[in-house]
Amino acid sequence: MSRTVYVNGAYLPEEEAKVSVFDRGFLFADGVYEVTSVIDGKLIDFEGHAKRLARSLAELEMPNPVTEAELLEIHRELVTRNDLDEGMIYLQITRGAADRDFAYPQDAEPTVVLFTQARSLVDSPAARTGMKVISIPDIRWGRRDIKTVQLLYPSMGKMAAKKAGADDAWMVEGGFVTEGTSNNAYIVTRTGKIVTRHLGEEILHGITRAAVLRFAREAQMEVEERPFTIAEAQEAEEAFITSASTFVMPVVELDGTPIGTGKPGPVATRLREIYLEETRKAAT
Ligand code: PDD
User: Fold this and answer.
1) Which residues participate in catalysis according to the annotation?
2) What pTM, to 2 d.p., does this model score?
């Protein structure tokens, strides 16, 4: 089954969609991206992703070639053309094609690519069993708040996890967990407090994170935004991750040590329920 993808203003069969070999996304990872989930054919938190995209582009002094309204239109069109009920829409914008030179080109046209990925997200086996996570050093660059396509280290982290018989890796810098390879990381302390690293340049400002923390506070759960260590996480009552593609996912093992009961805990389970309920109501 061939998908219809979007490239620079055109909707094309995926086999016909092409980007230049001189594209700076290809040569320099000079590009940013977003992943927006789709449930029941509707977009989850589109506005949050569009706003973060605009911020990532601005931080890299890259012109924003699409308005939020145009972007919404393209997302909707892809959902319709691909008959997408559940899954993700991947969006990437690069600085465009220009002869190879480290300095930014003056007149390159940004490249805009979007495609769909049909996936079952809500009914996830990992949500029932929980995930196993290992820790790895965080050796990424210092501007992780910009959602760039430089994802080689996160890929290496996922492979290291796979080799270790785990599902993912949490990255550690200066003794503290920054985030997961493609998600934000949380623990629930013995006193029931939800702890996740504060926002800064060290982590991506997750759109799911913002929503989940808002729902947690509305449900009178206590939230503390501060760094935590691997040792503290191993002693925690629960742990979980959040991202657009996993929503809220329990973590039940860290570096071989079971967390809490070693099964998905009530806080993560409840937050997943609330998140799905509320975002489905607000989906566009
Ligand atoms: N990843 N941290 C990192 C490093 C991420 O790559 C992501 C998202 C998140 C969570 O952000 P959000 O809640 O806005 O999805 C945190 C996406 C899903 C990906 O790379 O596929």
Assistant:
1) 147
2) 0.97
